[in-house]
Specification:
399 residues, alpha/beta, Rossmann fold, two-stranded antiparallel sheet
């Protein structure tokens, strides 16, 4: 599908927001409805052909008393997600009353697999349903998204095209929210530069095989997907075959939901399962991947942001025992990398360094964004200075 068709579909969905939500939400809040509804419609369209197979499998598993059903239901669906309700989105168009539509739509949502439930919960989408139902807007949304005018099924739109549309919708909604502009985004040119910095210097050394990519502040996942695309293209250019596995962690609920949804929409269900997030999943105080090492890491961590709450959860500076931040270096077995609680950006870098591979020929490569304070804050012996010393004395700094 060419770019003009993708733009048409994006604008059509954008138009739905204006047509249906104008008097219900301020423009900056359209995304609270349109993004999850777009995700639901695409997933629904993907699952239509396997719907009966999933229902049959569900009935058989229930009859056999099998509790752990996720793997079998994924297999029946042929996807990394499924829906065990008796409804498709098209079925919901013909409800006689708002109350019946609301009840059936909620039952439809409840039928989705746990990974989709996680996305919906972090979008807080169920909170929107009473308002949409009361205004009689829920049925209109479903009608427009299932209209023959727009085909979000795999037959009409491949995974890459759907991912592009979703990313463009996110970008447009982000621009509408001036108060949030730039908060969760790194300019795409900067991301591409970071990917080139970690891959190009070792392009000739990358062999066929499997590589793990990680971002500990992954936002909507742009760095991971750009890095993956860059590595895949380099492997093709050098006649290699590589497999990539993406891992990420994100504390902001909505951006985490967008990241996970984007990967599902692109057909990368395994990668979506490796994205961990939500308010309870701070990278600093609740590392989702302890002990795991990665080949390539990129990140744009928050800077100038207090991490005092995390510090308190970890026992405070005096009782800190996290092996990522209290290490052995230069004969000191309690060498502290713990920075001031007013800015935790350098701890995200220390977290990535703790996940470097040291026993392989290629090792690990990291690209991370910081503001200027990382170069000079902290007196000798303090966390910031200790991190700089640790990096330089190990000869890890390249640029």
């Amino acid at each position: 599908m060419d770019s003009s068709q993708l733009s048409w579909i994006t604008n059509y969905i954008w138009g739905i927001a204006d047509d249906v939500l104008r008097d219900l939400y301020v423009r900056g809040k359209y995304r609270d409805v349109i993004l999850p509804m777009t995700v639901l419609r695409r997933l629904d369209a993907v699952l239509e052909e396997s719907k009966q197979a999933v229902l049959d499998m569900k009935a058989g598993l229930d009859k056999a008393g099998i509790v752990e059903q996720d793997a079998a239901l994924r297999q029946a669906a042929g996807e990394a997600f499924y829906n065990t309700s008796k409804f498709t989105m098209r079925d919901l168009k013909s409800r006689a009353s708002r109350q019946q539509l609301k009840a059936d739509f909620e039952a439809y949502l409840d039928g989705f697999s746990p990974n989709v439930q996680d996305i919906l919960d972090n979008f807080e989408f169920r909170n929107q349903i009473p308002r949409l139902s009361k205004a009689d807007a829920l049925g209109t949304l479903i009608e427009k998204l299932t209209s023959p005018d727009i085909d979000l099924s795999p037959a009409g739109l491949d995974n890459h095209g759907m991912g592009s549309i979703f990313e463009e919708l996110v970008r447009k909604f982000n621009e509408e929210n001036n108060e949030e502009a730039g908060e969760h985004w790194t300019p795409r040119d900067a991301v591409k530069l970071m990917a080139q910095l970690i891959f190009l210097p070792v392009a000739d050394q990358i062999e066929s095989g499997t590589y793990l990519l990680y971002d500990g502040a992954c936002g909507t996942g742009g760095m991971l997907t750009v890095a993956e695309d860059t590595l895949q293209q380099l492997s093709v250019d050098h006649g290699k075959e590589v497999a990539t596995h993406l891992y990420g962690q994100e504390i902001n609920a909505e951006t985490y939901a967008i990241c996970k949804a984007d990967l599902l929409l692109k057909g990368e269900g395994d990668a979506a399962d490796n994205i961990v997030g939500g308010p309870e999943h701070s990278t600093l105080s609740n590392d989702a991947f302890p002990g795991r090492e990665f080949d390539f890491m990129l990140s744009n961590p928050p800077y100038g942001k207090s991490w005092k709450t995390d510090l308190e959860r970890m026992g405070g500076k005096k009782d800190m025992r996290d092996p990522r931040f209290v290490i052995e270096h230069a004969g000191d077995f309690e060498y502290s990398l713990v920075t001031r609680s007013s800015d935790g950006q350098m701890l995200f870098m220390a977290n990535m360094i703790s996940k470097m591979k040291r026993g392989t020929r290629l090792g690990s490569r990291i690209a991370t964004v910081h503001n200027g304070s990382s170069l000079f804050t902290g007196d000798a012996g303090q966390g910031e200075s200790n991190i700089r010393r640790w990096i330089i004395e190990n000869d890890w700094l390249e640029a």
